[in-house]
Write the structure tokens for this entry.
Amino acid sequence: MDRLPVLFSCSHRRSGNSDRACELFLQGIRSAGGDAKMIHLGQYDFVPCHACGKCRTSREHRCVHIKKDEAQSFYQMMLDAPFTFFSSPIYFYHLPSRFKTFIDRGQWAWEAFNAGHPIISDLVQRNAYCCMVAGRPTGEKLFQGAELTLKVFLKFFRIKLNTPILFKGIDEAGDLGADNYKSDKIFKSGHLAWKTHLENHS
Ligand SMILES: Cc1cc2nc3c(=O)[nH]c(=O)nc-3n(C[C@H](O)[C@H](O)[C@H](O)COP(=O)(O)O)c2cc1C
């Protein structure tokens, strides 16, 4: 196994619920004999997409901001990884701003996908997993926008988003860690993700 899965923790708060979700997913992977890289995506500032349209015609659909931040290195990890995991809080019924800016910068992949460029079309379909947490204990539409956005973003990297793990009523930094049932669900999801990956490549 040369390429490791990548786990992106997307909160702006360190050592909170999203970080905990990533750690639990990683523990699950390790319990099945695997390993993964963890990126604290929420700690990185990204230059926003300026909608210049240059990625439509540039070499390998590269973004004009490619050298200005870490976005491209994280996209490359997504392209290389056998599977990915995203954990994120809900901010105002959506994804946190840094994560959303990272997603918007993925416009280059939308262009590459639609142009049939081999950088995307040569990829095999891979899986993504995710856990989102929200402070409010109720709310039918709490995760709707965030889930749809993540699913569409990943599609252009030829990554399929599995049914997300969604937890309401998780607000204080330690709430997820204190809930054994919810923690176990994430741990088991990581364990199964690694086993599924092994089965698909045996
Ligand atoms: C700016 C901001 C906006 C938020 N908006 C919502 C919201 O719309 N609905 C909700 O249920 N919780 C909302 N929350 C609460 C977070 O989703 C919740 O505290 C979550 O557990 C934070 O995860 P973290 O520990 O990974 O940062 C918001 C929190 C912040 C800081």
